[in-house]
C-alpha cells in the first residue's frame, strides 16, 4: 500500500473557517494530502475582523508538536501565525535539522488590519525561522518588513524575493501581488531564477484567508513531491478560482471557495522562467 502524503500546519485559528488552520486543513484535503494541525493561538475572528487573541502556553504548543512528530513525520510543514519570539524559537528548535519541506507564511497583520504578530517579533522571524524555510510567501507589507525597503511594483517584488533568498537564507521566496494594482502577479525566486505567476485581478472584497490557502496548497504539493515552481503554479491556480467563484458566506470580507477549482479544473497560470 502506498503511503498518503501528509502535511502539518502550525498556526492560529479562525472559528469562521476562512483563514488560519481551518483554511489550511481544507486546502490540504482538497489537494488529497493528509492534514494535521498544531494550534499556536486561538483567535476570536470572523469576516469583519479580530475580536480577541489567546496565545497558548509555549510548553503546550511544544506538547502538541511532540505528539505529532512522535507519531507521524509530515512530508511538509507550514507555519502561519507565530505571534511571539518564544513560539518562533520553539518551532525553530523542532524543525532544525529536519529535511521536511518547510513553508513560512509570515503572517503579521490580518486583511482587516488587526495585528496577528507582536511587533517585536516581526524582525526576529528573519533570523529564527526564515533561514530554515524551503519557501517564504510574504504579501507586500510583510515582504517590506523582511527586506527593509518599499515595494510598489513587480520589479520591487522581484528584488525582495531575491533578497529573502540570497541575504536572509531561505531556499525560495514568492512575493504575492495581492496588495499591488493591475494583474495579480506573484514573483517566485529560487535557485533556478525568477518565475512569474499571473492572473486577472478579481474585483471583490471577499479575500479573507487568501494567503493562508495559497501557502497551504503549495505545502500540500511539496508534500506530494512536486517541484517548487509546479507547487507555486498549483497554489496560484487554486487561489485564483477560489477568489473568482466567491461563496457569498459571511457579512464582511468573505472567505474564498476551496471548491472553486472543481468548477474549472486548474488552469495553467504560468511558472515560465523569466530573466
Ligand atoms: N483580487 C484578487 N484577484 C486575483 N488574485 C488575487 C486577488 N487578491 C489576491 N490575489 C492572489 O491571492 C494570493 C494571496 O495574496 P495576498 O496578497 O492577498 O495574500 P495575503 O495578504 O497574505 O492574504 P491574507 O492575509 O488574507 O491571508 C496571491 O496569489 C495573490 O496574487
Ligand atoms: C489565524 C489567522 N492566520 C492568518 C490570517 C491571515 O489571513 C488570519 N486572518 N488568521
From TrEMBL:
<protein>
    <recommendedName>
        <fullName>Hydroxymethylpyrimidine/phosphomethylpyrimidine kinase</fullName>
        <ecNumber>2.7.1.49</ecNumber>
        <ecNumber>2.7.4.7</ecNumber>
    </recommendedName>
</protein>
<feature type="domain" description="Pyridoxamine kinase/Phosphomethylpyrimidine kinase">
    <location>
        <begin position="14"/>
        <end position="257"/>
    </location>
</feature>
<dbReference type="InterPro" id="IPR004399">
    <property type="entry name" value="HMP/HMP-P_kinase_dom"/>
</dbReference>
<comment type="similarity">
    <text>Belongs to the ThiD family.</text>
</comment>
<dbReference type="Pfam" id="PF08543">
    <property type="entry name" value="Phos_pyr_kin"/>
</dbReference>
<keyword id="KW-0808">Transferase</keyword>
<dbReference type="GO" id="GO:0008972">
    <property type="term" value="F:phosphomethylpyrimidine kinase activity"/>
</dbReference>
<comment type="pathway">
    <text>Cofactor biosynthesis; thiamine diphosphate biosynthesis; 4-amino-2-methyl-5-diphosphomethylpyrimidine from 5-amino-1-(5-phospho-D-ribosyl)imidazole: step 2/3.</text>
</comment>
<feature type="region of interest" description="Disordered">
    <location>
        <begin position="256"/>
        <end position="275"/>
    </location>
</feature>
<dbReference type="InterPro" id="IPR013749">
    <property type="entry name" value="PM/HMP-P_kinase-1"/>
</dbReference>
<keyword id="KW-0784">Thiamine biosynthesis</keyword>
<comment type="pathway">
    <text>Cofactor biosynthesis; thiamine diphosphate biosynthesis; 4-amino-2-methyl-5-diphosphomethylpyrimidine from 5-amino-1-(5-phospho-D-ribosyl)imidazole: step 3/3.</text>
</comment>
<keyword id="KW-0418">Kinase</keyword>
<dbReference type="GO" id="GO:0008902">
    <property type="term" value="F:hydroxymethylpyrimidine kinase activity"/>
</dbReference>
<dbReference type="InterPro" id="IPR029056">
    <property type="entry name" value="Ribokinase-like"/>
</dbReference>
Amino acid at each position: 500500500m502506498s503511503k498518503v502524503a501528509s502535511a502539518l500546519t502550525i498556526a492560529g485559528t479562525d472559528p469562521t473557517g476562512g483563514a488560519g488552520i481551518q483554511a489550511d486543513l481544507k486546502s490540504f484535503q482538497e489537494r488529497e494530502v493528509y492534514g494535521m494541525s498544531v494550534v499556536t493561538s486561538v483567535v476570536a475572528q470572523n469576516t469583519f475582523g479580530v475580536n480577541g487573541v489567546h496565545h497558548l502556553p509555549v510548553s503546550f504548543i511544544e506538547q502538541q508538536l511532540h505528539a505529532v512528530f512522535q507519531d507521524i513525520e509530515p512530508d511538509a510543514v507550514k507555519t502561519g501565525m507565530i505571534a511571539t519570539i518564544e513560539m518562533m524559537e520553539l518551532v525553530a528548535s523542532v524543525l532544525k535539522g529536519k529535511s521536511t519541506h518547510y513553508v513560512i507564511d509570515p503572517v503579521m497583520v490580518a486583511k482587516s488590519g488587526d495585528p496577528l504578530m507582536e511587533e517585536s517579533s516581526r524582525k526576529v522571524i528573519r533570523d529564527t525561522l526564515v533561514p530554515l524555510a524551503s519557501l517564504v510567501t510574504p504579501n507586500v507589507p510583510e515582504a517590506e518588513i523582511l527586506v527593509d525597503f518599499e515595494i510598489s511594483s513587480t520589479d520591487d517584488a522581484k528584488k525582495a524575493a531575491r533578497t529573502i533568498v540570497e541575504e536572509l537564507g531561505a531556499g525560495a521566496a514568492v512575493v504575492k501581488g495581492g496588495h499591488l494594482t493591475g494583474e495579480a502577479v506573484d514573483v517566485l525566486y529560487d535557485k533556478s531564477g525568477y518565475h512569474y505567476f499571473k492572473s486577472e485581478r478579481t474585483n471583490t472584497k471577499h479575500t479573507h484567508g487568501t494567503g493562508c490557502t495559497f501557502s497551504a496548497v503549495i505545502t500540500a504539493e511539496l508534500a506530494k513531491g512536486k517541484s517548487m515552481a509546479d507547487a507555486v503554479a498549483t497554489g496560484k491556480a487554486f487561489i485564483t478560482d477560489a477568489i473568482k467563484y466567491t461563496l457569498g458566506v459571511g457579512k464582511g470580507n468573505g472567505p474564498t471557495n476551496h471548491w472553486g477549482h472543481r468548477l474549472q479544473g486548474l488552469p495553467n497560470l504560468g511558472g515560465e522562467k523569466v530573466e
